[in-house]
Amino acid sequence: MEQQHRPDSEAPLLAASKPDGAASSSPPRNRFPFFCAVLASMTSVLMGYNVAVMSGAQIFMAEDLGVSDTQIELLSGAINIYSLVGALLAGWTSDRLGRRLTIVLTNGFFLVGPLIMTLAGGYTALMAGRFISGIGVGYALVIAPIYAAEIAPASSRGLLSSLPEVSAAEFPLRRMMLQSCLIIVFLSFVKIFINTGVMLSYVSNFAFSALPAHLAWRLMFAAGVVPTVFLAAGVLTMPESPRWLAMKGRLDEAKAVLDRTSDTLAEAEQRLREIEEVVDAGSNGAGGSNGGGGTWNEVATKAGVRRVLATVLALQFFQQASGIDSVVLYGPRVLAMAGVTSNTLLLGLNVLFGVA
Questions:
Q1: pLDDT tens digits, 84-134
Q2: What is the pLDDT of residues 270-279, one digit of tens each?
Q3: Fewest 10 Å CB contacts: which of 23, 73, 203, 263?
Q4: Which sequence ranges are marked TM in the entry (predicted)?
Q5: Residue 184 structural domain
């Protein structure tokens, strides 16, 4: 009987000692915004797929359509130039349509571009499809990190929880530097999804390599079309960015989204106040009448901000200057020049390199 009553007598002691510190210091994590951020970042998987699928498809394109090496090089490398168009338009589009619909539009580019290339009968149609895909690449690079940063609570954003509670209207140096670091963190997060897309394109190249040339490269592009439909449908189930809703004066909707994506109701209230401060500062102060002149003035006059900007630009420059795109786009051709003659073996080795 004593053994039966002992757990009952110990249970209140354990229950009393457990929740006090835990509940007050660390409330349960809200996993819903993490799910939304991951779903939005899946667009980056499509981006990586559409960029790298050319590495294997070009072998069969040359055999089927008779395109030259110069044409293949232009078709492969031009996507980096085309993506600039999407990157320049993404901010303007997301401010007008909203972050969520901009992600859907990005998936639309990844649907139409590869579909045109799948059905292409000549080089002009291939380049048109590549152009549309390139615009989608630029959109994906911009909108995925923006949505993830704006939807996530402080507990998920890491550095953002350490931002000082000061007015954004003054453009304080410390706040801008921490926000720049936060952008780097989210870009690194998105990079994981991009690399996943690159790896999936290598697998697709290998999977269809045994088919006849006129089918192989078309199916490689077609494989990236179907997921865009399901992803766009999934994105429509996500909430809109609370910051964008506040920018449009829809504060009640913004508050409802923050209640769903914050760890506590108190945090939701605090996030709403911070968003309202930033929006008011943008419309009435530095970001409104002079088109963001306060931000550029901060860059021009603050040495610390210039160092952060220089660091970010240097990292991106050396990443591209390392020649990583040549490995992503021309790995199989390099292996062919090294003496590998079987297309299946070429693309199988490319998968191994992608894993490594």
A1: 999 999 989 999 999 999 999 999 999 999 999 999 989 999 999 999 999
A2: 888 888 887 7
A3: 23
A4: 32-52, 72-92, 104-125, 131-149, 181-203, 215-238
A5: 31-238+302-355
DSSP string, 54-115: HHHHHHHHHHHH---HHHHHHHHHHHHHHHHHHHHHHHHHHHHH-HHHHHHHHHHHHHHHHH
Query: Residue 309 corresponds to which tokens in the numbers above?
Result: 């900007």
pTM of the predicted model, to two decimals?
A: 0.77
Please give the Cα distance from 60 to 57 (Å, whole number).
6
Whether 76 is in a domain gets the answer: yes
Q: CATH number of the domain at 144, please.
A: 1.20.1250.20
How many domains are contained in the chain? 1
In angstroms, the CA 37 to CA 93 distance is 19
Q: Token match 């009968």: residue?
A: 121
- Dihedral, CA atoms, 161, 164, 169, 171, nearest 10 degrees? -100
